[in-house]
Design brief:
By secondary structure, the protein is α/β, with parallel strands linked by helices. Helix content is 48%, strand content 12%. It has 2 domains: 238 residues, no CATH class; 139 residues, no CATH class. Strands 1, 6, 7, 8, 11 and 12 form a 6-stranded mixed sheet that branches. A 4-stranded mixed sheet has the order 2-3-5-4, sandwiched between helices. A two-stranded antiparallel ribbon has the order 9-10. Strand 7 and strand 8 form a beta hairpin. The chain starts with a helix and ends with a strand. The relative contact order is 0.14.
């Protein structure tokens, strides 16, 4: 989860940097609206996307030894100290859930305010929207097909405000606002979601101002924006009189329309998107749940026919200290398992991301007793690397003998990583 949040944060930061440097000052408001919506949505999906055709598999080589028998799987779990570390991450998730619960309550409270205002205001139904007149002169705002305006606002000012709010209604800006407010409930710790939301609110106002200008003169409309009204903060809506936006809106009203050729700037997002796809395709995305076992895989080993399976070799390789053991195979297996337990550390990143599962391992003991050709396949590259690290640390063995000659021996040794 933490890795996912960090990746989406990086993707969003890069998309926003492109927007701030090249797109923000252009008057392509519709394009900017869908750029912000699209890039935020894409950033949430990118960590799950893997384009395998970018990195085609070179295939695997099957093992030809018919009598290859896997040793009994060894089950490994995190130590008490590591489990305590995991508990700290559980605390993190609990804190995140607490914030999401508070955000949901805030969201529902905002909806309740809007519905209460609607209930207490007399409606004036129009063809495609409904106007609700509130007592006094509070700041006008819209919510889907409802427009709220003060009863004291009359005449030309009222007509200009309604023409502005109608654009919001017609272009379904409330859907954008609702989309981000719901995402804030889930991703409330992501600072960039608030930046995205603020930029999108600005685009909404620029679009509505642009539409209202077709019905009102620029000078009269600017005078209206410079007027002062009492405001009430309702976070689920964009209010007509937002002091932090007034100056920007006036600047954009007087700005000359951008040349159409400048739309080519949006093409800059394509190489950025491609780089993100390459990154997502390179990394291992697989996470195995406690109930899921990885599918059977074929591990690659050398095709040399001289390698003999451990269970059928005449005199198996001996672990140091097993020279006088009555059952040398059993002694070897016990020492192998003890070695793995003593050198095992549950990978921190696997703990953080709840990664567990079975890792299938192959390795050889060479004619000189060295550990060679260690290969692993499992649910995660993190677990594979830990398995390879442990097996590679095995001591030098006394080589196996077949027909009086030292031979290579191949082992199949599965390790199961388990989170309790």
């Amino acid at each position: 989860m933490i890795r996912y949040l960090l990746e989406t944060l990086i993707f969003q930061a890069l998309f926003l940097l492109l927007f701030e440097l090249f797109l923000k000052k252009e008057t392509f408001y519709v394009w900017n609206r869908f750029y912000l919506l699209g890039t935020f949505g894409v950033s949430l999906l990118l960590p799950f996307i893997s384009l395998t055709f970018l990195f085609p598999s070179l295939g695997t080589v099957s093992i030809y030894a018919e009598n290859l028998v896997a040793l009994e799987p060894l089950f490994l779990s995190a130590s008490a100290e590591q489990q305590n570390t995991l508990s700290s991450f559980n605390f993190f998730y609990g804190f995140w859930l607490l914030g999401s619960t508070a955000g949901l309550i805030r969201f529902l409270y905002g909806l309740a305010i809007i519905f209460t205002l609607r209930k207490n205001a007399p409606p004036l139904r129009e063809e495609k929207y409904t106007v609700y007149e509130r007592p006094g002169n509070p700041s006008p705002f819209y919510f889907f097909k409802w427009i709220f305006i003060g009863q004291d606002i009359q005449g030309e000012a009222k007509a200009q405000i309604l023409s502005h709010e109608k654009v919001h209604v017609q272009q379904w800006h409330s859907l954008d606002k609702l989309f981000f407010e719901l995402l804030k409930v889930v991703f409330w710790m992501n600072p960039l979601i608030y930046f995205y939301s603020r930029r999108l609110s600005e685009i909404h106002e620029f679009l509505a101002d642009q539409g209202a200008l077709s019905e009102n003169g620029p000078k009269q409309y600017q005078q209206l924006l410079n007027s002062a009204f009492n405001t009430q903060n309702i976070f689920l809506v964009n209010q007509f009189y937002n002091s932090s936006l007034i100056k920007k809106r006036i600047v954009m009203l007087t700005k000359q329309n951008s040349k159409r050729i400048l739309k080519i700037k949006y093409v800059l997002a394509l190489p950025l998107l491609f780089a993100m796809l390459v990154y997502s395709s390179c990394k291992d995305e697989t996470e195995t749940s406690p109930e899921t076992e990885p599918e059977a895989t074929t591990l690659t080993v050398s095709e040399q026919k001289e390698a003999v399976p451990f269970m059928v070799v005449e005199n198996p390789p001996m672990f140091p200290g097993c020279e006088n053991a009555e059952d040398k195979r059993t002694c070897f297996i016990q020492n192998l398992q003890n070695h793995v337990r003593e050198n095992f550390t549950y990978p921190k990143e696997a703990l953080e991301n709840d990664i567990q599962g079975k890792v299938s391992n192959l390795f050889k003991v060479s004619v000189t007793g060295e550990i060679t050709e260690v290969t692993s396949e499992g649910p995660s590259e993190i677990l594979e690397e830990e398995a390879v690290r442990i097996i590679s640390k095995l001591p030098k063995m006394i080589p196996a003998m077949q027909d009086g000659k030292p031979v290579e021996v191949v082992f199949s040794f599965p390790i199961s990583f388990v989170l309790e």
